[in-house]
C-alpha cells in the first residue's frame, strides 16, 4: 500500500510540475489536458488515503493510531517554499537560458525557467514590502524591477547605472529591503560596504558604512518584537552568518555555516515562517562545474543544513515580501516547537482523517 501510494504521489508531482511549466509557456490547450490528468491523480491519491485509514482502523484497537498514521504521512509530503533566482554565473547554460529568472523548489532543487532578465550579472534579489521583485545588476551598477511572469528586468527610473557608483569597480551585490522606510539596502562583498538606495532619487546609492572588513554577499531582513534584524552571509572567504547594523554597516558574527560546501557567493532570504534560506554559487570552487547548494540556516547559531542541489551559477534568492508587522510577544527566529505546514494535498488528507474519526465514533455510539 505504501509503495503504491508513493508511486501515485510521484505521478501527481510530475503532472503538477508539467502544469506549472505550461502555465509559464501560456499553452492553454495543453494546460487543460494536464489539468484533467492532475484531477485523476489527485482522485487516486484520495482514494488510497481512505483505504489506508480504513486498513489501520480495522486492524488496530482504537482509532488513534490509524488516524495519526494517515495525518502524519500526509504531513510528511508537505511542500517547502519556492524561491526566485538568477543563474548569472552559470557555466552550463546556453545563451538562451543563462541570466534567466528561475523559480526553484527549495525542497528538491527543481528549477523552472521563467525568462531572461535582460541584464548580464544580476546578483542580489529581494521583494519589497509591496511584493515587487527587485534585483541588483553588477555589470551595469543598476537597481532593477523584475517581472515574475516573464523574468524581464527594467532599470528603476529607466536609466542604467542608476546606483551612480564607480563603473570601474565590481561590487558583488546582496540586496534586501528595510521596513522602516521601504528602501533597498545593498551589500558589496568586494568593497566590504553597506549601502542604501534612494528610490525617490532614481535609486541613487549612498554609503552607510563598512561591514567590519567582512565580505557580505547576501542580505535578509527580519522584523521581530525587538525591531528589525538585518542578517548577512559572508562570501566564501568568510562562510559565516552575521548580524548587520543597518545604521552603521558593522557586522557581528553569529556563527559559521559548518555543514555547507565551499562556495564563492550566495543569495539569502527569509520565508513567510521566518526560516532563513540560502543558495550558494559553487562554479568557481573547483575545475569542474558544481551545482548550487540550497541551505536552511539557523539564525541563532549560523549552522546550515543542506537541503538539495540546483542549477549552477546561482548567487541570488528572493522568496517572499518582508513581513513588516512586528509579532506580538515574539522574539523572532525559530518557533518554540515545530509546527507541520501542510500543503493543499496534506490539508485534504487531514480533513479526510477527521471525517473518518467522526464516522468511527458515530458507529461506536450508534
Report on the structure:
There is one protein chain. By secondary structure, this protein is of the alpha+beta class. It folds into two domains: 2-78 and 340-365; 82-310, TolB, C-terminal domain (Neuraminidase, 6 Propeller), CATH 2.120.10.30. It is built from four helices and 19 strands. It has helices at 2-25, 28-59, 64-76, 344-365, and strands at residues 82-86, 100-105, 111-116, 122-127, 133-137, 142-146, 153-155, 173-178, 183-188, 193-198, 204-210, 216-224, 227-234, 240-244, 251-256, 265-270, 276-281, 292-297, 304-310. A four-stranded antiparallel sheet has the order 4-5-6-7, with no helix packed on it. A hairpin with a 5-residue loop joins strand 10 (193-198) and strand 11. The protein is globular, with a radius of gyration of 23 Å. It starts with a helix and ends with a helix. Residues 19-40, 60-78 and 329-345 have low confidence and may be disordered.
- Oligomeric state of the chains present here: single chain
Order of the strands making up the biggest sheet? 4-5-6-7
What's the shape? globular
CATH topology of the largest domain: Neuraminidase
Architecture (CATH level 2) name of the largest domain: 6 Propeller
Strand content: 25-35%
Distinct helical segment count: 4
- Say how many strands there are: 19
Integer-rounded radius of gyration: 23 Å
Sheet having the most strands: 4 strands, antiparallel
> Could you name the CATH homologous superfamily of the largest domain?
TolB, C-terminal domain
Instruction: Summarize the helix and strand pattern as letters.
Output: HHHEEEEEEEEEEEEEEEEEEEH
Contiguous uncertain segments of 5+ residues: 19-40, 60-78, 329-345
Spatial gap, N to C terminus: 31 Å
Count of domain modules:
2
By secondary-structure content and strand pairing, the structural class works out as: alpha+beta
Mean pLDDT: 80
Q: In which range does the helix fraction lie?
A: 10-25%
CATH class of the largest domain: Mainly Beta
